[in-house]
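Inputs:
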Amino acid sequence: MDHIYVEGPNEGGHEEDVPRTNAVQTEVLMVEKDPDPDESPESWYSTPMHVLFNQLGSLCTRFNKRIKGTQFQQHFVQTVVSTMRGFSFPMLYLSGMLFPKHFWSSASNDRSAILGVMPISCYRGKQYADGFASTLQQAKTYATVSSSTTSTDHHFVSHLYDSIANRAQSGLDSRDFKRKGFKVSPTSENGIELGEADDSRLNESLNSKQAARNLAAASKYVGFDVFVTFTLNASKHPGVRHLYDWKQSMLWTDKIDNWRHLTTDQQHEVKQSFEMAYTCILNRNWLETRKLLIEFVINSARKILGRESVDAFFRDEYQESSANVCHIHGLMALCKKELSNEEFKEFICSLQRNAVCDLILTDEIEHYIEEGLLRDVDDWERFVETANEVLSHKCDNRCKRRVDDTGDDEKDLKCRKRHPVYDSIDPIQNEFIPLPFQFSEECLAILSECEFYEEPSDEFPNGRIVHDSLRPTRHIGKVTPSARENMSEVFPKYFALTRSMQNHQIVTDTNGVSRYVVKYIVK
Amino acid sequence: MLTCAYAMIPPHDHIAHHIDHPTRLDKGNRCIVWADQHTGAVVRCEKQFVHNSKITSSAMLEEKKFQKSRGSKHYVGRYSPFSELQHYLLGYPEVHSTMNFVEINTMKSELRPTTKLSLDRNGNLRRPNMQVQLEDGRSSDGMVCEVRREAVVAKHVEESDPHV
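Outputs:
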């Protein structure tokens, strides 16, 4: 029987006798390898990595070919997962062991039972093991219950996701998951399942490859007009900015005991904890807000853009490893009723603005105020200031694409953002500039057979592609020639609404580019 | 905002997840895991930024560069942002669409696994499920194939009978 020092939330530390099994050794024994007294102690020992991966992870585990490992290997893994130098912990309640800051209390009639945690016997294939709620139900409760610290701890939420991901992988070849990843599944007991499975319906989750084919096929019947991207500016976006304001106001420090008497380091630590909790809440708010935003964009297109939205497709995307919330890519098709093709092109191009000075012209301010998109003239000044800050392009890793692999990043990487002034031929006109694309000789021969390509002649010395679909173009909108900020192309009313980074590209009659943006969305 | 990709702590299931979670979506980053060759007991992890893997040419060059590096021999995964994990965990839909996609089978009916072919005593094809056929795609070929086929047929006819 060992002793453990338990600290309650409102009381001083006290010593408790918690009956527990000391199933592990406090020192890890490993094979000795070239002890060098000058090196750190870790370098004296060596253990094959496959032991760790096979036993700890489920990397090579198949349903009917489980790698059990020798008793020694199992023992080694057990020591790794359940020991901390100088301490041992009961393994009966896994989450309680890993996150004692959340699960600090034992049951009054059974000191070894940690409250709020399911016993380790529930981590098995059965959905409702021993009558407990399923792992998914418990995870959702932990992640959303507002009265518990579990909902605001990203480490704990990641642990919950791990538990579910490991369950979802059970019985399947892990190489499939390596290739395809996970997707949300409302019908699966785990809530997630193998991505790109056989079904390809674009309801709530996305099969990347099949979705690209489906959307590309749909583009024959639904001519998409706008490629939109919405991102979140936490300080300005409706639905979440109150959270940012609350964080920045520092009024929350009133809830912290003895805040004023804490040292600078302690205050920094508390701020970090608050930032972590803020991230969890912010993400959940954004997931709700972006749903409302998408519904608003779809349903209010007539009022905002002047034409109804016929069809729309939106998809979430995440970037990098940071805690950035998702941004949204989408395609919209607008109603073309009563307008000829040229008239519609002119209409849709007129919606797009490419420079901060063009966003809201002075004679449009009143109209924006009437519509509630601006509060007053002073708000217009703030609007311009935000646009300058948010919409201006700042080159970083995200905007670059690799064009070569020489090893010199300055030559290999190229920014893919086109400058609305420098990259246009005539900045004061809406242009559809052909994209440079080299057809192979074999392809040209086939196209020639199909009469889609005319061989070089006196009139067309480089030959001529006859079919429009084979001549992709890119729209570059008209802009004030003096603009230098390389602004992201936007519809100003949407920017006035969200005050967040966004992008609206015209894809009407851009031919092959439609296929490209379809792939871009679903890739 | 915090960086919330979780840490590679050995006494945890995160390793399995990290290694098994490179998806075919926009990778954004690459996580390479290997055992330190000197100590063996230390897991090393390196993060690489992947430039625009959505653009096919950029993705190919990124892969080419990676294959040249020493990391290509190790386990490769992807750091998942915390917000993505929370999104999946809470089961929010990833896609919103006003379009309803209907699957239309374009495979030849006799090749479909649900089709059983047999002959009756007169040697005719027995098709009891003829009345309950699903909607078929008219053709699985693209427009280019169709035009090309017509052009080949026309050329063949012209060669065989120049007076036509």
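Remarks. Residues 1-24, 131-135 of chain B have pLDDT under 50 and may be disordered. DSSP finds four helices and six strands in chain B.
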